[in-house]
Specification:
five-stranded antiparallel sheet; alpha/beta; eight-stranded parallel β-barrel; TIM Barrel; globular; 344 residues
Length: 344
């Protein structure tokens, strides 16, 4: 017994010390790039988050106007020699709202659309993930409307039948929380509240369309009473919003200081710029005189948004926080402790 007691005490002290170490076990990330290529940086982000989950966009469903049919695009490409640090991957399928207005999403074709979607998810999973990582949940990202909700909800019901044993989740926008009686509640196991992109991109006078806590606060009154379990997605990205003659022309991602200096000069407002020459940046044509608004997310605004959601969730504040997205350069500006403090 004299030998056992010291060992026991050592174990107790070791466990006690471990409890004091912050593990950051409360947040995950979306992966939105079309190439799944883990890096030392992205692996560390997943480790720091502690959930070891990653929400990976598998493909999009869009309407091909020339073929007048619904097609998958932007299918994820996995590295052949894949080493995955995540222990669970949640496939995400982004579906443009127009899909559920198309004939392929009519009553006769909805079964085929859902079946084809399920089969494509399973093909990707079986080829790249089986035996390497758990896949327990499928998420569908669609900003449904009054006109599309019937087809979208029926699609979700059929998809659930096609994928027995999987948790089926969908994304949820703020207006679908506040006006759930009109927009409906999707027939899924859980939802993810997308707490960003709340402004009007088309408005050249908009200040920041990514994050506006004043606007968001107006939509959270009924969050605690939402009838499905929910998680929360917070923004961790930035972009440039390009206007020509006051009209939206596109979004420029991955702007760097050198790119900004080569084509733009500071304009009147704090985050506004004017194109100084014709150029081509990240797939977008820029013409001299175009206006650019650079939108980002800072620590103060993100902390405020996080607090708003925690307060509005009340007794239901048992949700997972997912940051969008893991490949954003903005992740380098936040420490793991800061991200953990923003999470639930």
């Amino acid at each position: 017994m004299r030998h056992i007691i010291p060992l026991f005490l050592f174990a107790a002290v070791f466990i006690s010390c471990k409890k004091d170490i912050k593990t950051g076990d409360n947040y995950s990330f979306y992966h939105w790039s079309t190439t799944y290529h883990p890096t030392e940086k992205t692996d560390q982000l997943i480790k720091d988050g502690g959930t070891y989950k990653e929400y990976v966009r598998f493909f999009d469903l869009v309407v091909d106007q020339r073929a007048n049919s619904v097609f998958p695009i932007a299918t994820i490409q996995f590295d052949e020699e894949l080493q995955i640090i995540a222990q669970e991957i949640i496939p995400v399928v982004y579906i443009r709202n127009e899909v559920f207005l198309h004939k392929d999403a009519g009553r006769k074709n909805l079964n085929k659309l859902a079946k084809n979607t399920a089969e494509k998810i399973k093909r990707i999973q079986n080829k790249h993930l089986t035996g390497k990582v758990a896949v327990k949940q499928i998420q569908i990202d669609c900003d449904w409307t009054d006109r599309t909700k019937t087809n979208f909800f029926n699609f979700l019901r059929i998809l659930k039948k096609e994928m027995p044993g999987y948790v089926i989740s969908s994304t949820l926008r703020l207006h679908q929380v506040k006006f759930k009686e009109r927009t409906g509640v999707p027939p899924v196991d859980r939802v993810v509240l997308m707490a960003y992109n709340v402004g009007d991109l088309g408005d050249v006078e908009e200040v920041n369309s990514i994050i506006s806590n004043e606007v968001t606060a107006q939509y959270l009154e009924q969050l605690e009473d939402y009838p499905l379990p929910y998680d929360v997605a917070l923004p961790l990205f930035e972009w440039g919003v390009l206007y020509r003659d006051g009209k939206l022309k596109g979004l420029i991602r991955d702007l760097t200081p050198s790119l900004m200096e080569s084509a733009f000069a500071k304009a009147g407002k704090e985050n506004s710029y004017k194109a100084t020459s014709d150029s081509y940046i990240n797939g977008i044509f820029i013409y001299k005189g175009d206006d650019l608004r650079v939108e980002t997310v800072n620590k103060e605004k993100l902390q405020e948004l996080s607090s708003l959601i925690k307060k509005a969730s009340g007794s239901n504040a048992d949700y997972e926080t997912i940051f969008y997205h893991i490949n954003s350069p903005l992740t380098l500006k936040f420490s793991s402790d800061e991200l953990s403090s923003f999470a639930q």
